[in-house]
């Protein structure tokens, strides 16, 4: 049976941690608009070609509100971050969405990120000190990849870093599509909501130099600011988005660079390639997770296929990033690739707000590791690296290294 006649299970199972499933190339070539069955049993449409994914992500008619009665459920339990009530509080489109992005985006400018760099490097240095003191082999994900973005986002939100273990559990319940029951998810979200509510109230009493204080200082909707609920949910969203994705990406980037150690040696010989290496790691990442779901409130056409109103579309940015029609030698990791118009941060009005933060963290990690641990290597064969299962964002469960 050909691919366009069968219904694939999605996510597509894959045994290897760093390589793409062979179905991607086949789908792009023969069936770029494919029918898939989600973990919930509901059907959706999967897009794998660069131009199609870019078109849908940039089209404001395709909403991210998966709460419509005819939208596909991602999992039998619901789908965590993609269709929680919380996701509906931040404006999704139009002028309100632009207004929200403008207010929050002030914190994510290149200038702000440059100012944060020394503090990020200091955090990375301290974490590497702890890893080295613990002796080799160590786990680069647990030792550096996970704590660094948590410390940074806690700083930005004015949240005590000692609460970071609670955040990691709360964000995992948001982002894990299979591991938790509905009761566990609801309980964790209620705790998280209460915590952020208390934190925002404390900040209102005593404004600090952090993102939430700045949003509060603008005033409410009448003064051109956000409602209390929107500020609270913005804090939750940034905490979840700001650490889990980058923590996993640090692990995967280092996994890719050390799986073929000539890549690491190339960087050691020429650290000026750090910026393009980060972009290429983002493009080359074959384990980026679920992809972005979009709901179609109107009938539309993608790549010559009519998609009826009510279709749920999954955009696989990782598959699109391996499209030979968009990237020369797409299946090779080229640390000098430039320009590199990958879709890892999405496209259009919903492109990732924190992409400058993620890029800066990834660059700082490379700078500090090249300086501190030039002899770094994987402590297990690359084939033994394992994926994190069930997470909406892909990752490696551990990255064992020695130096």
Automatic annotation (TrEMBL):
It holds the Pfam family p450. Gene3D superfamilies: Cytochrome P450. Keywords: Heme, Iron, Metal-binding, Monooxygenase, Oxidoreductase. InterPro entries: Cyt_P450, Cyt_P450_B, Cyt_P450_CS, Cyt_P450_sf. Its cofactor is heme. PANTHER family: CYTOCHROME P450 BJ-1 (PTHR46696:SF5), P450, PUTATIVE (EUROFUNG)-RELATED (PTHR46696). Belongs to the cytochrome P450 family. This is Cytochrome P450.
């Amino acid at each position: 049976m050909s691919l366009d006649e069968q219904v694939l299970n999605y996510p597509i199972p894959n045994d290897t941690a760093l390589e793409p499933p062979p179905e991607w190339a086949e789908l792009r070539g023969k069936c770029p608009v494919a029918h898939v069955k989600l973990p919930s049993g509901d059907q959706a449409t999967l897009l794998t070609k660069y131009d199609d994914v870019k078109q849908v992500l940039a089209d404001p008619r395709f909403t991210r509100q998966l709460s419509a009665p005819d939208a596909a459920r991602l999992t039998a339990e619901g789908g965590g971050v993609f269709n929680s009530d919380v996701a509906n509080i931040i404006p999704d489109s139009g002028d309100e969405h632009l207004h929200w992005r403008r207010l929050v985006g002030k914190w994510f400018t290149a200038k702000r990120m440059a100012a944060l760099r020394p503090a990020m490097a200091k955090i990375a240095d301290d974490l590497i000190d702890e890893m080295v003191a613990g002796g080799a082999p160590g786990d680069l994900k647990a030792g550096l990849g996970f704590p660094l973005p948590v410390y940074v986002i806690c700083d930005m939100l004015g949240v005590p870093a000692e609460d970071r273990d609670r955040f990691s559990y709360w964000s995992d319940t948001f982002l894990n599509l299979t591991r938790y029951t509905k009761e566990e998810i609801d309980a964790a979200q209620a705790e998280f909501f209460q915590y952020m509510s208390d934190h925002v109230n404390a900040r209102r009493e005593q404004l600090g130099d952090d993102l939430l204080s700045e949003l509060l200082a603008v005033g409410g909707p009448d003064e051109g600011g956000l409602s209390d609920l929107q500020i609270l949910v913005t804090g939750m969203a940034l905490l979840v988005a700001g650490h889990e994705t980058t923590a996993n990406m640090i692990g995967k980037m280092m996994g890719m660079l050390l799986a073929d150690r000539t890549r690491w040696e190339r960087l050691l010989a020429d650290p000026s390639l750090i910026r393009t290496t980060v972009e290429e790691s983002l493009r080359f990442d074959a384990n980026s997770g679920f992809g972005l779901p979009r709901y179609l409130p109107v009938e539309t056409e993608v790549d010559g296929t009519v998609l009826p109103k009510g279709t749920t579309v999954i955009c696989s940015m990782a598959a699109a990033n391996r499209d030979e029609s968009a990237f020369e030698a797409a299946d090779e990791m080229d640390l000098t690739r430039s320009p590199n118009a990958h879709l890892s941060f999405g496209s259009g009005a919903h492109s990732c707000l924190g992409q400058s933060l993620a890029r800066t963290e990834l660059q700082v990690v490379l700078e500090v590791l090249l300086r501190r641990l030039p002899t770094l290597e994987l402590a297990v064969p690359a084939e033994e690296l394992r994926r994190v299962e069930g997470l909406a964002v892909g990752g490696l469960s551990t990255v064992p290294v020695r130096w």
